[in-house]
Amino acid sequence: MRSTGRTVGKALVALVSALVLFVTGYGWHTYQNLSGGLTRSDALAGGASSSPGGDTNILVMGLDSRLDQNGNPLPPDVLAQLHAGDSTDGGYNTNVLMLLHVPANGGPAQAISIPRDDYVDLPGAPDGVRKQKIKQAYGLAKDEKERQLRAAGVTDQAELERQGREAGRRESIQTVQDFLGGVSIDHFVEVTLIGFYDLAQALGSVTVCLAGPTQDSYSGAKFVKGYQQLDAAQALAFVRQRRDYVHPELNFTDLDRERRQQAFLASAASQLRGAGAFTDPGRLNSLIDVAKRDVVIDGGFDLLPFLLRSRSLLGGNITFTTLPVKQFSQVDGQDVNLVDLAQVRATVRRLFYPDDAPSAADGPSAQLPAATLDVVNDSGRDGLAGKLETELAARGLTRGTTSTGAQPRHESTVSYPPGSEAAAGALATALGGLPTQADPSLPSGHERVVLGTDFSLPAGPGAAGTDPTAPSTDQSSPAPAASLSGGGIPCVK
Length: 493
Fold this sequence. Notes:
Blueprint: H1 11-22, H2 27-37, E1 39-41, E2 56-63, H3 76-82, E3 94-102, E4 109-113, E5 119-121, E6 131-133, H4 137-151, H5 157-179, E7 187-191, H6 193-203, E8 206-210, E9 214-216, E10 221-223, E11 226-230, H7 232-240, H8 254-275, H9 281-294, E12 295-298, H10 303-308, H11 311-314, E13 318-322, E14 327-331, E15 334-338, H12 341-352, E16 372-377, H13 384-393, E17 398-404, E18 413-416, H14 421-430, E19 436-438, E20 446-451, E21 482-485, E22 491-492
Parallel strand pairs: 1-12, 2-7, 4-13, 8-22, 16-17, 16-20, 18-19
Antiparallel strand pairs: 2-3, 3-4, 5-6, 7-12, 8-11, 9-10, 13-21, 14-15, 18-20
């Protein structure tokens, strides 16, 4: 059975609803009222790099916490409506992680969902944990920071909460950037569980579509086939559902919940465009109040310039994609998703920068320019260097030497002698977009790959079996990348 943790599809609903209301005809005063009232964070200060060509990447984080922005428990009557346990449930997991890519040229937007159980490297090793589910980066870093503050004599709970959350945001941002191969995160939006509920209340009913009837006592979901209108409590159940014991043939997983989140957002945005919801000053002010109370954004996010060139979002010209999963597995008794890092990064590059994505000839089975390959294993995983030599020997490279570094390092690299930039670039691309660097000490015709803790073996035709360093798996079928259009009300499982 998969994990019983709960999630909500709240964060992108908050973001797109905010975008809609920002560009309505209520003018500068309304914009100032919202922009000046939002909670701002310094988690990206000095850490964000600009995306290529003026594009904008926004990380949307949805916390599964049953606490408010100040760390206070939600009222019992609200928890009862949420059907989500009590204030001890949920913790500070980022059970929603979506990266929104908005091209500078006004072209179609892309939103990628990162499955919450993807087993990844945590660059800051918070609480001494170097590898864990991606959703846990936030909570581990928050806990580590609060323990440090208490040891230094800080006792004010509000200050502990504020600094702890800032540490959690920083670790989550860095983890996502590293996981996706260095894709820059220019801005972020964070919403907690109560934020989604408040927003759904302000929006009123939302129409969704289901391919068949479904029921789940854990989330409170009980829906019929076809189109139906959901109130706030039902909307929460819709986006949290990940099981159905009444209809076991549906075979729900966490990836289906990702799709529910995407479908709800697409449906809500479609209705907002068609119903003129933001021509109602009362409804507009209600939504602004929700954003001011429940949404956190980075301090450098200047909303107006972004909104003026983001009308493709409001027109529904957006595609939602769930990143692929290689296998479902268990590590230390926890259900996790094993991923092919090269495949994940290639998927992101293809979606965000299609003009720069490798062609089919550059795929996993393509031959590489001839060279002798030396591999240094600094990953901390036995056998990885030899396995990589085997994989790449099938693609035209000559086996060189393999060795093990004195201590693990995080980043993998490809080194090459002067004059071999093109060959090294082809190898780096085949390995998921690794950084390259010239090394005059390398003999002509050689290349060196240093394997860090971020490295994952490439998959595809010509791959010689399973990574021997990976955790044991239940041999579940892989889940490829899957996309959904944001232009209407899609039907989902």
